[in-house]
Design a protein that fits this description.
- By secondary structure, the protein is mainly alpha-helical.
- It has a single domain, classed as Orthogonal Bundle (Lysozyme).
- The protein contains 7 helices and no strands.
- It has helices at residues 2-18, 29-40, 60-65, 81-86, 89-103, 115-124, 135-152.
- α1 crosses α2 (29-40).
- Disulfide bonds join 31-115, 36-42, 85-91.
- Keywords: Antimicrobial, Bacteriolytic enzyme, Disulfide bond, Glycosidase, Hydrolase, Signal.
- Its EC number is 3.2.1.17.
- This is lysozyme.
Length: 153
């Protein structure tokens, strides 16, 4: 039950982060929260580790493909622009939204573009989303969505 509560808390956290974003938002708040949960456990304070940064474990290439968003309009060419954005929950969420706007596609062939497709795009990339998701990511993501659905009635 504690794990489920943490998942719900992560979703509520990202509802507040996402509320003030002024970009096209193809990914719902719930989907964004479950992406975060599946990729990093939504552990606050995550920084760069290897080639991935922040709660969404965003790589430099992902950030660049999203248009190199920054905080407060600072230059994307400024030293540290990538980790500053991707380690900030609001800027990282905006990066995910921008990436999904660019690469949105029906990855699983069900005739619609939805949260399951965004999960595949996030984890496998905009050009490889038709592949198989890693078991742990897939399982955590589906459990999170099921948990939220159980509370939405």
């Amino acid at each position: 039950m504690a794990s489920a509560f943490l998942k719900f808390s992560a979703i509520i956290l990202f509802l507040s982060f996402n509320a003030g974003l002024a970009v096209d938002q193809p990914v719902t708040e719930v989907c964004l929260g479950c992406l975060c949960q599946a990729v990093s456990g939504c552990k606050q304070g995550l920084q760069c580790d290897g080639d991935a940064c922040g709660l969404f474990r965003i790589t430099w290439a992902y950030w660049a493909d999203a248009g190199k968003p920054t905080i407060d309009g600072s230059s994307p060419e400024a030293p540290g622009a990538y980790p500053t954005c991707t380690n900030d929950p609001v800027c990282a969420a905006r990066t995910v939204q921008l990436y999904m706007s660019r690469f949105a596609q029906d990855c699983n062939g069900d005739g619609q573009i939805d949260c399951y497709d965004y999960a595949a795009i996030h984890k496998l990339g905009g050009y490889g989303c038709k592949g198989d998701l890693p078991f742990k990511f897939h399982n955590t993501f589906n459990q999170c969505l099921a948990y939220v659905a159980s509370y939405q009635g």
